[in-house]
Amino acid sequence: MALNLETFSSRKGGNTFYKAISHPLVARDAEAFLERLSNRKVALYDPLDLLSTFHQIHDISGLEISGLFVQDLGDVGKTLCGQTTRPVTELPRCDADCVLLIAYDADRLKEHIRHLLPETAELVSLDDGLRLPDGFLTDRNSYLAPLNFATNFAFFRDDGGLHTRLTTTNYWSGYGAEAPQIWCCLFDQQGRVLAQWNEEPADSYAAIAIESETVRERFGLAGFTGQLFLHVIGSAGHDVVKYALETYGDLDNVLSATHDANAWPADRYAGLPAPAAGEEVLLWVQNSHPCPIPAGAIGLSRMGDERIVTLDEQVPAFATLPLDTKRLLPEVRWPAQIEIHAGKHMVRPRYEVLWRVEADGPKAPFRRRIAHPNVERSDLTLDPAIRKAMPALGKGYLLPAPILPTKRYRSLALATPMSSAQTSLPLAVALYDPQGKELLRQPLGLLPRDHALELDMDALLPDGLAGEEYSESGGWGHMELFYDFSDGGEADGWLHALFRYHDRQSGHAADTSFGAHIFNSVITFKGEPQSYAGHPPGLSTRLYLPVAPLPWRTFCHLIYPASTPWHPHSQTTLTLHDGTGRPVASENLEIACSGSRLWDPATLYGSETLESAGPNAYVIIRDSSCRLFGYHGVERGSDAFSLDHMFGF
User: Fold this and answer.
1) Is 265 exposed, middle or buried (CB count within 10 Å of its CB: 0-12, 13-18, 19+)?
2) What is the CB-side half-sphere exposure of residue 54 using CA atoms within 13 A?
3) For 136, which of 207, 392, 499, 529 is 20 to 30 Å away at the CA?
4) Could you tell me the pLDDT band of residue 602, with boundaries at 50, 70 and 90?
5) What is the pTM (predicted TM-score) of this model?
6) pLDDT score for 119
7) Burial of 110 (0-12, 13-18, 19+ CB in 10 A)
8) Is 59:30 a contact under the CB 8 Å cutoff?
9) From its phi and psi, is residue 637 left (phi > 0), alpha (psi between -120 and 50) or beta?
């Protein structure tokens, strides 16, 4: 039931062919394309080994196939689509009146076999009906160039007083793109197209904001819950569309933040929390393909338990289905975590937690927060080289996260296995104050894959620090998870954790999750410390902080993690931009190595300056001396807050 697609590999990157044939505009034409072939005898020629992927997205079993031919002798004798592959030199012996060549930019391949065509047979390729218009192409010389398919999906909702706001900047122009545009296609819950339009950012680094309320009004739409497909035309630098996504409600007690999806469907996702007492956890199953997800193809299991309970209904093409995790796993409770068996049918999905707090009353509307699981890698193995490298790498792979001011917030962490190879987690945790002083370092032992060890900072912080007010000297800071092999075990280099924050006053909460990297070390190891441009090590910072419209208060928690000792202080510049991308104000900040800083734009720049920057203002956080890691959030008065990690470009 799983799709046998090669969508992404760490060695080769993304499979652009998969994106090309699953694109919504191509899907619109596919039915007509195959219909034209339905009354003919069709021979299939698959010189590039693309037919299997094509067939799983666009079912060709209804065609009358006269033969399946390949170019590589090593591929002869395989079975696909009910046919045994034959060498292309046997093509003249079949009785086809049409030869379908499974390839793009196929003119040269056509010429190779034109002399082999059966008499009167027509030769067609995917160029002849399953190709985007030229106006969508960044690189017209190579149809499958990655920048031609700079695409992504976003959860998008405007219904029942619930709204979404997607923000990013025209960062593609910073890489040399000229006048990029974003083609947007909005699908409703049933997978039907509600609207299509282009977003055209005016200038380099101009803000881009797509508001669900504005879209609904512009196109005269009823309430919707679905997904927004984004295709950047004329992109440069990145073939993944990066964005921040805010979800909020008419009521003050609905607010959360998440960010761009991973653009490649995966077999499994992990880091989905089981519901705590009084909670519902909805997994938003969003079909990323123009073909239905069959009943039984999506399943859930408790992490560490391979007994999978499957969803017994079909999900139409590009449709959205809310799945209450209790429906499939009624007994699994937080702090257990759930593994999603997705079969490559969807890009990284979202989950939504619904709950009430006692102060709201038993009939009050649910509070809501949205976050995402992460891709669980199936291509990794345990790597003893990680353990052997630790002396030279210091803390090595580390995962930093905020400890928010402890009088108001409770900060929790749950380590999440994020590859099928990781049967146990050899971990430790360390806590740091804002000046980089280590307050605690504690081994966690060798955690089993099905562990439910919730790390509560209230219990871990030294006496006298838990429950303090915000201050420069204590009561808050950040935590770091990293590998610790004191009790044995091996690692896969793909350490992740889910971080959860509770507001002690309002009862609101926020979830965020991320993976470990090697930070601020000149010694490199397996491509780390990562670099956005050029070879590792990546030792600089460019982060994007969206500023929420006033009177909401935006805040940012910047962390200076270091695997090995690095510069004593950061040299960080925080530049406020207005919606056109014009710099409005700039301030400098120093953060101690292994320290952190919690700050907010209104205090840093002043309310008048922030207001003058307008409704789509944002901050670029730049540091050429070190790599910082950041989290952003919004406070909606005293009723709700959001928190998620930031992205860079």
Assistant:
1) buried
2) 23
3) 207
4) very high
5) 0.95
6) 87
7) middle
8) no
9) left
Residue 66 CA to residue 60 CA, distance in Å, equals 13
Q: Closest Cα to residue 614, out of 557, 576, 575, 574?
A: 576
**Arithmetic mean of pLDDT over the chain:** 93
Q: Which of 443, 286, 427, 299 is nearest to 370 (CA)?
A: 286
Report which of 379, 374, 377, 370 is spatially closest to residue 352, judged by C-alpha positions. Answer: 370
DSSP for residue 637? T
Local structure of 126: helix, strand or coil: helix
Nearest to 442 by CA among 455, 425, 451, 458: 455
Cross-strand partners of 257: 246
- Helix, strand, coil share of the chain (percent; to 5): 15, 40, 45
Cα–Cα distance between 294 and 284 in angstroms, integer? Answer: 16
Q: Quickly list DSSP for 155-185.
A: EEEEBTTEEEEEEEE-TTGGGT-SS-EEEEE
Tell me the backbone φ, ψ of residue 603, rounded to 5 degrees: -75, -40
CA 182 to chain centre: 18
Closest Cα partner for 18 from 56, 47, 46?
A: 56
Region 413-433: what's the mean pLDDT? 96
Cα distance between residue 276 and residue 266, in whole Å: 27
Measuring CA to CA, how many Å separate 17 from each of 49, 126, 264, 476? 11, 11, 12, 48
Could you tell me whether strands 41-45 and 98-101 are parallel, antiparallel, or unpaired per DSSP bridges?
A: parallel
d(CA 406, CA 469): 7
Q: What is the pLDDT of residues 503-542, one digit of tens each?
A: 999 999 999 999 999 999 999 999 999 887 778 999 999 9
Average pLDDT over residues 574-581: 94
pLDDT score at 14: 65
Cβ atoms of 208 and 168 within 8 Å: the answer is: yes
174-208 pLDDT, tens digit each = 888 888 999 999 999 999 999 999 999 877 889 99
Write the CA distances from 566 to 108, 534, 542, 624, integer angstroms: 54, 21, 18, 13
The two three-digit tokens of residue 123, written as one number: 């030769």
3-state DSSP assignment of residue 235: coil
Q: And the tokens for 523?
A: 């010694």
- Dihedral sign, Cα of residue 137, residue 138, residue 142, residue 148: negative
Q: Each residue of 328-357: pLDDT tens digit?
A: 999 999 999 999 999 999 998 999 999 999
Burial readout 423-440 (b: 16 or more C-beta within 10 A, e: otherwise)? bbbbbbbbbbbbebeebe
DSSP annotation string for 47-71: TTS-HHHHHHHS--TTSEEEEEEES
Q: Is 230 helix (H, G, I), strand (E, B) or coil?
A: strand
Q: 512 near 530, Cβ under 8 Å?
A: no
Q: 191: Cβ–Cβ under 8 A, 6 or more apart, which residues?
A: 226, 287, 316, 317, 318, 319, 320
Tens of pLDDT along 283-292? 999 999 999 9
Give the residue-averaged pLDDT of 297-317.
96
Closest by Cα among 562, 537, 524 to 395 = 562
Q: For the CA atoms of 448, 453, 455, 460, what is the dihedral angle to 10 degrees?
A: -90
Average pLDDT over residues 264-293: 95
Query: pLDDT tier at 15 (50, 70, 90 boundaries)?
Result: confident
